[in-house]
Design goal:
8 helices; 57% helix; 2 strands
Length: 225
């Protein structure tokens, strides 16, 4: 079984995850318009001057009103998304993957900076403090390793189980992004990058396809590209 992810590994994984979500974040968390302020009474300029009222703005086009952009994509936001993925791995090993998947369409945008109803706005979802997010990421990765060791007794078999899980998580991520109106190719690329970033926490340098079933006796195995 691979060692617990280092601080450097967590930072590198978070940065890769941030690059992966950058193309979809603007679509998942769109720019929000500020509330329209009530217009002042339309009075003649002479009367406004006499009453000491400020000049009324000429531009009343709502398309040109000030807007509130979502927080910038950062490694901390990437770490928040990775935490959601690691929770999916733990949910799979606990037999509760369907519950995790049912809330993914809400939690994924929140991890990317979407506002949460009833909660004060922060810089990026769960990111109350950069050190805390990275500490949570390392702790969650350690929990995945512990669960995986208990399930597979470690070794290469454990990494094989993890690889199969990551492939499944990638498919669920891609499907959720498509349901959030992300184009198919963009959703697939983002999901793939996130899974590679998550796998790097456990020493997987690249995402591998699940092991194919053995070919029947006398038939050659299919060649992979």
């Amino acid at each position: 079984m691979c060692p617990v992810p280092t601080d450097y590994a967590c930072q590198a994984a978070a940065e890769r995850a941030a690059r992966g979500i950058a193309p979809v974040r603007a679509l998942v968390v769109p720019v929000r318009r500020r509330p329209v302020q009530p217009q002042q009474p339309d009075l003649p300029v002479v009367l406004r001057t006499y009453l000491g009222m400020p000049a009324q703005a000429e531009n009343k086009d709502p398309e040109n009103q000030d807007t509130t952009a979502p927080p910038a994509v950062s490694s901390l936001m990437g770490a928040s998304v990775l935490l959601v993925i690691l929770e999916g791995l733990k949910a799979d090993m606990a037999g509760s993957l369907s519950e995790w998947h049912s809330g993914l369409s809400l939690r994924l945008p929140q991890a990317m900076g979407a506002p949460v109803a009833g909660k004060p706005k922060t810089s990026s979802g769960r990111q109350s403090g950069g050190w805390q997010v990275m500490a949570d990421l390392q702790k969650s990765a350690r929990e995945v390793l512990t669960d995986l060791a208990g399930r597979s007794r470690g070794g290469s078999a454990g990494m094989g189980v993890l690889n199969v899980q990551l492939v499944m998580i990638e498919d669920l991520l891609s499907g959720t992004l498509r349901r959030l109106d992300i184009p198919v190719e963009t959703a697939a690329h983002c999901a793939g990058e996130l899974v590679v970033a998550a796998g790097s926490l456990f020493g997987l340098s690249a995402r591998l396809p699940p092991t194919a079933p053995s070919a029947p006796s006398g038939e050659p195995a299919a060649q992979r590209d």
